[in-house]
Design goal:
Oligomer: heterodimer
Shape of chain B: elongated
Number of domains of chain A: 2
CATH topology of the largest domain in chain B: Beta-lactamase
CATH class of the largest domain in chain B: Alpha Beta
Distance between the termini of chain A: 19 Å
Order of helices and strands of chain A: HHHHHHEEEHHHHHHHHHHH
Largest sheet of chain A: 3 strands, antiparallel
Number of helices of chain A: 17
Structural class of chain A: mainly alpha
CATH superfamily of the largest domain in chain B: DD-peptidase/beta-lactamase superfamily
Strand content of chain A: under 5%
Helix content of chain B: 25-40%
Number of strands of chain A: 3
Strand content of chain B: 15-25%
Distance between the termini of chain B: 154 Å
Helix content of chain A: over 70%
Number of domains of chain B: 2
Chain lengths: 381, 629
């Protein structure tokens, strides 16, 4: 007869877990596989989108490498350890955002960068994309669910401060992603539907208010152009008209790799960054885009499974929010390039060129891995 | 109120999160389905539309202008060719604020405000904003360098090499070949926009205008792939333009130069026609002008100078100049009178120095106030006797006279391929009724008989009339194009030959003309005596201002510009005509004294060889020698 202990944790179980190298390295095999496929696909598409710029590919590949290392390191930390440091990280993040607004480095007409020459150059707002959901998850995980009005209020306050600071940079895309990442924690925490519906209803006056008092001229222009791209075909409507033409002309099977005329002839602006999906759609057609969407869906499905399997509430809330935010990236980017949404500067995760966003995303997946691989098996049974 | 102790219910929290995950997953699937639907709409439903859009985006069709046909004189000397020239073009679409760019060009090249205004006008005429419009032509090396250095300030500005029309003969053919110029707004509306899509110049006058269609050629195309900024990346397809047809003129550069030299700087017109072919050998309207500045755009100042000059260099005297033919018409009148039966070769008229209508007292004067006595046909032409022709005109009447003179080409356009030829005027009863609402008066018939009155002719018409004398009525429209790509021009509406009841009538009039040059009392015998071949000619005087009844023409009282124009028409050799010439010397006064030597010089240049002898091929054929005289 087996003892109680034996029944709980058999040798077999122990051996099986020991045998899994990935488990011991705190790496989730499925996520890693999907990420590597995406990375390979990204380089493949970037080669075409950048006009066969090998130098750019090497940069992107090294960003991937750095990101994967970062992901691996983050995955080693226990979620509990992270939760402990979250408040401090939040404070630091807000401090950096203030610093950026006060004296940041100017790039592309917007102040987004912290630049210590020779040492580091990064966007605190990117950092905030991870810190934001972690902070709210940390805060709510200590309360009873669903959150009460007071806790909702405090959560919202925690969200609005960095949101406002990022909006002031101004960076509408990132600020919306930050607000979404915080809001998803509230959603995961079981925020009552009446609050959700109420908030959505309140969006209309808020949007009107933002239009008149917050949005900058170029942001208004983007919205107006989105509503009627043909109104200014050579000016601000150009991007959308050209990207739609690129996507539409791809058809079902696409024009073939390196054969997309829209991007290769410079008609498509920002073809290797925010608008890269148009290159994919032009060269690989509907089939190519659907394959990419499938990869994303698998990633998201894995993230949601991790959410459900997470043992701590902090882990659940954070994993759920990170996964949902990831989806927002995908949806907003493809939606904007295909003319469903206004143009906000959101890159396509893992495909668009750009080291910062890559590292942020991979950090998020590091957290997911950490949540998934630091489960306490004994207590689970 | 006692605060209930809340315990963490992990099971409940997990349920809650799981439920939210399911809701989230459902939402995600829904939104992804939305994205796929959107992409399906763009890539499948709207595929055609976007495909076309993308295709149009990158493929631009660029016109390639054809090379304009070359023009040669009858011996193959180049009269109009195309030379590479560097011009400055501006593309409005790429220039941004193009007025500012124009300012920059003017500053860089140190040009004047006048030129700035000209540039602006040219840019405004540009048809499509993405097409480069040439604003300045014939850039010098230095100008090209200056533009290159300042290129960064000049968006949309390019230096391009293009073929530009050039007239190596300069002034010689300005009035016959004409010139090309930039297409203006009015022409733009009438032109085939496709065929002229790459062309900036069009024939404005002369041969260049008349044979524009043949000289222009057909436009070619280049399908090019461009990027968003319009830069051409590669050529996809090319349809070569069809170059314009080369044209060989009937004109002879050497004869043209000789004719101009014969005028010796005087204002006037000369037309020389080869009777057998109707080919115009020389066509002079002096003073002339250099057509080259007109090609690239003449400056306001230079144009104003030409336009306002008292010598009127832009005025085409050959085709547009209208003069009363004067006595030059008398041989044709004689032919008409013989054919109408109102005179015979031997019928005579007594000339007391004037002519009076039977019931009128008005005296129609002979130029020779003392009178020539009894005058027959030969004498009348030789002496240019007015009284004889008053009588002839009176007997013929206006109707028959109008009929005959029209058949000689007077009052109608005679040329085959000359731009803007004036018809002149051969009056008739109908014309006078329509013009003045007055009946025809018999006195008007009389003065028509000596080529005065309402009659208006161009030097070309006079040349053609004398050619008809030389040809014995055989009509060939005078023309300037000998061949167009090897083929001679075709006369779509040939005029009927003049057939006389008795062809010998030609010979009586022609003999009279010969006597003018070679007869003992011929008016131009001085000129005739110096010729090594026989000429048949007739002088004439075209009044500039009318002289009142009873007054005499006194040259000293009349301003130089109001003096009579001297006319002379002739053909030679008289029995084997090789050349027919009409000369008009403005304010030259004496047909025989001033115009006749010019005629002879032109004939000498054509008929004589280097030794001053009649060229063998022009010598009188033996057969005709017998029948004549």
């Amino acid at each position: 007869m087996n003892s109680n202990f034996d029944r709980t944790l058999s040798n077999e179980d122990v051996l099986r877990r020991r045998a899994s190298l990935l488990q011991r390295l705190h790496v989730d095999g499925i996520l890693l596989l999907l990420l590597l496929i995406l990375a390979a696909g990204s380089l493949f598409i970037l080669y075409s989108a950048s006009g066969k710029n090998v130098e750019l590919l090497i940069k992107q590949a090294s960003s991937f490498g750095i990101g994967l290392v970062g992901m691996f390191i983050i995955a080693q930390f226990e979620p509990r350890f992270m939760a402990r440091w979250v408040p401090l990280a939040y404070a630091a993040g807000v401090g950096l955002l203030v610093a950026v607004d006060v004296m940041g480095h100017n790039a592309m007409g917007a102040t987004r960068w912290i630049n210590i020459p020779g040492v580091i150059r990064f966007q605190p707002s990117e950092f905030m994309k991870i810190i934001m959901p972690a902070t709210i998850a940390w805060y709510l995980s200590k309360r009873s669910l669903p959150p009460r009005l007071k806790h909702i209020g405090i959560s919202l306050a925690l969200i609005v401060v960095p949101f406002t600071l990022i909006l002031l940079q101004p960076d509408l895309g990132t600020s919306l992603l930050v607000i979404a990442s915080g809001a998803f924690v509230l959603f995961m925490a079981g925020l009552q539907w009446r609050w959700i519906l109420g908030a959505l209803a309140a969006l209309v006056p808020v949007a009107v208010g933002m239009w008149f008092f917050v949005l900058r001229e170029y942001q208004k222009q983007r919205v107006l152009t989105f509503l009627n791209p043909e109104s200014d075909p050579l000016g601000s409507g150009w991007n959308i008209i050209q990207s739609k033409a690129a996507i539409g002309s791809g058809g079902v099977l696409g024009k073939g790799w390196l054969l997309g005329t829209q991007s290769h002839l410079d008609f498509l602006p920002e073809s290797h960054t925010d608008f890269i999906i148009a290159v994919l759609a032009e060269e690989f057609g509907l089939v190519g885009v659907c394959l990419l969407l499938l990869l994303y869906l698998l990633l998201i499905a894995r993230g949601l499974v991790i959410t459900v399997q997470a043992q701590t509430l902090f882990g659940k809330l954070l994993a759920g929010a990170l996964t949902m935010t990831f989806f927002v990236y995908v949806f907003v980017n493809i939606g904007m390039v295909s003319g469903l949404l206004p143009v906000v500067g959101v890159p396509l995760p893992f495909i668009s060129y750009g080291g910062t966003s890559l590292i942020t995303l991979l950090s998020g997946f590091g957290i997911l891995m950490s949540i998934h691989t630091h489960r306490k098996w004994i207590t689970q049974v | 109120m006692p605060q209930p102790i809340r315990l963490k219910d992990h099971e409940k929290d997990a349920r809650l999160v799981r439920q939210r995950v399911l809701v989230g997953a459902a939402a995600i699937l829904l939104l992804v389905a939305g994205l796929v639907a959107r992409l399906y709409y763009l890539q499948v439903v709207q595929y055609e539309y976007h495909s076309t859009l993308s295709e149009n985006n990158r493929v631009h069709v660029q016109p390639i202008p054809p090379t304009r046909g070359l023009i040669f004189d009858r011996n193959g000397v180049l009269v109009a060719d195309n030379r590479p020239s560097f011009s400055l073009t501006l593309t409005r679409e790429r220039a941004g604020d193009w007025r500012q760019v124009l300012d920059a060009i003017v500053e860089v090249l140190e040009l004047s405000a006048d030129e700035r205004a000209l540039f602006e006008k040219r840019v405004r005429q540009g048809r499509r904003p993405f097409e480069p419009v040439p604003v300045l032509f014939e850039l010098s090396e230095e100008q090209i360098a200056r533009i290159a250095v300042n290129q960064f300030r000049l968006p949309g500005v390019e230096v391009v090499a293009q073929l530009v029309r050039h007239y190596p003969q300069g002034e010689h053919f300005a009035h016959s070949v004409g010139y090309v110029g930039r297409i203006n707004e009015k022409e733009l509306k009438e032109l085939d926009p496709v065929d002229y899509s790459g062309t900036h110049h069009i024939g404005k006058t002369g041969i260049e205008r008349f044979y524009e269609e043949q000289l222009h050629g057909e436009v070619g195309y280049e399908e090019v792939e461009t990027n968003a900024r319009g830069r051409v990346l590669r050529v996809l397809k090319r349809t070569d333009p069809l170059p314009g047809k080369d044209l060989v003129l009937t004109l002879d550069v050497r004869l043209q130069e000789a004719a101009e030299a014969a005028l010796g700087g005087r204002r006037g017109a000369i037309v020389a026609i080869q009777p057998a072919t109707g080919e115009v050998l020389a066509m002079v309207s002096q003073p002339s002008f250099d057509p080259n500045p007109f090609v690239t755009g003449i400056s306001f100042k230079a144009y104003a100078e030409l336009r306002d000059s008292i010598d009127r260099p832009l005025y085409n005297r050959v085709l547009r100049g209208l003069y009363p033919p004067g006595s030059t018409i008398k041989p044709m009148m004689a032919v008409a009178g013989l054919d109408a039966g109102v005179i015979t070769p031997s019928s005579r008229v007594f000339d007391p120095g004037f002519y009076q209508l039977p019931t009128h007292s008005h005296k129609y004067r002979n130029w020779n106030r003392s009178g020539d006595g009894w005058v027959n046909l030969e004498m009348a032409i030789m002496r240019s006797n007015d009284t004889y022709f008053y009588d002839l005109a009176h007997k013929m009447g206006i109707d028959r006279m109008h009929d005959y003179m029209s058949r000689f080409g007077l009052g109608q356009r005679v040329a085959l391929d000359m731009f803007e030829e004036t018809a002149g005027l051969m009056p008739s009863r109908d014309w006078k009724r329509a013009r003045y609402r007055q009946p025809w008066y018999p006195g008007e018939t009389l003065i028509l008989g000596i080529g005065q009155g309402y009659m208006q002719t161009t030097p070309l018409q006079l040349a053609q009339a004398v050619t008809l004398m030389a040809n014995r009525g055989k009509w060939i429209r005078p023309h300037l194009a000998r061949t167009i790509e090897g083929r001679p021009p075709v006369d779509a509406e040939p005029l009927p030959d003049i057939r006389l009841r008795d062809p010998k009538s030609w010979d009586y009039a022609r003999f009279g003309m010969e006597q003018v040059m070679h007869g003992p009392r011929g008016t131009a015998r001085k000129v005739g005596d110096s010729a090594v071949y026989r000429i048949a000619g007739k002088s004439g005087t075209a009044q500039v201002v009318a002289i009142k009844q009873g007054e005499r023409y006194d040259r000293n009282k009349i301003q130089e510009r109001h003096r009579d124009h001297a006319l002379f028409v002739a053909f030679a050799p008289a029995d084997n005509p090789q050349i027919a010439v009409a000369v008009m010397v403005e304010n030259g006064e004496s047909g025989s004294g001033v115009a006749a030597p010019v005629v002879k010089q032109v004939m000498d240049a054509w008929l004589l060889d280097d030794n001053g002898q009649l060229k063998v091929e022009y010598a009188t054929p033996l057969k005709t020698e017998v029948g004549q005289r």
